[in-house]
Design goal:
This protein is α/β, with parallel strands linked by helices and about 200 residues long. The protein has helices spanning about 5-10, 35-45, 60-70, 90-95, 125-135, 150-160, 180-190, and strands at about 25-30, 50-55, 85, 100-110, 135-145, 165, 195-200.
């Protein structure tokens, strides 16, 4: 945390493309990356894309960095030039980004906050939908997934009541160009059915 995180921290919200050491043409954001396997796969498969991976929990941040640098290389091991970490609330980052600066956003298996009184804590919330829409370019995709029935119903309600995104048909099989996540694998083994959504910015 002390040596690697400062080297990976995204520090250019006002000019997102300039926040990467690699030359990138697009910027994608993953909100709540968990162990980091999904964000790492995105960055590895899309070298012309700058991936900002947001996570506030130390365990997830440590898992991500441990997979990127060998023990003993925390201070000087090479790092992917198109991957950066945001270790604060992703909503704060979204507020600081310029309008229409993102080409894609991922929300993969977020905490469902299943109790009704906690609904306002869900990232998929009407006010956050407006914020996300303002930061995505027209035609950009918001990709999301959840295996939680309460959250699945909630997403249908929230996205059915907005007019900023076109909602593609919900899928129950992960599209081929979506990397798998560790949580998804556990959900499938437990017999739960994930839903996969694509919302296209109008």
């Amino acid at each position: 945390m002390a040596e690697t995180l400062p080297r990976l921290r995204f520090a250019s919200p006002d000019a997102p493309i300039a926040g990467f050491s690699a030359a990138v043409q697009q910027v994608w954001l993953e909100v709540g990356f968990g162990g980091g396997e999904h964000a790492r796969a995105l960055a590895a498969a899309n070298t012309g894309v700058g991936v900002i991976a947001a996570e506030v929990f130390a365990q997830g941040l440590c898992s991500m960095m441990a997979a990127l640098v060998p023990e003993g290389g925390e201070a000087d091991a090479p790092l992917p030039g198109n991957l950066r970490l945001w270790d604060q609330d992703a909503r704060d980052l979204l507020r600081d980004l310029p309008p229409a600066s993102l080409n894609r956003l991922y929300l993969m298996f977020p905490d469902p906050w299943p109790k009704a009184r906690h609904a306002k804590r869900r990232f998929m919330h009407p006010e956050i939908v407006k914020l996300v829409a303002s930061r995505l370019r027209p035609g950009a995709e918001w990709r999301a997934a959840s295996d939680d029935p309460t959250y699945q119903v909630w997403v249908a309600e929230v996205m059915g009541a907005q007019d900023l995104f076109d909602v593609r048909p919900t899928q129950t099989l992960r599209p081929a160009d979506w990397p798998a996540t560790r949580y998804e694998t556990k959900a499938l083994k437990a017999g739960r059915t994930p839903f996969y959504w694509v919302f296209v910015r109008r």
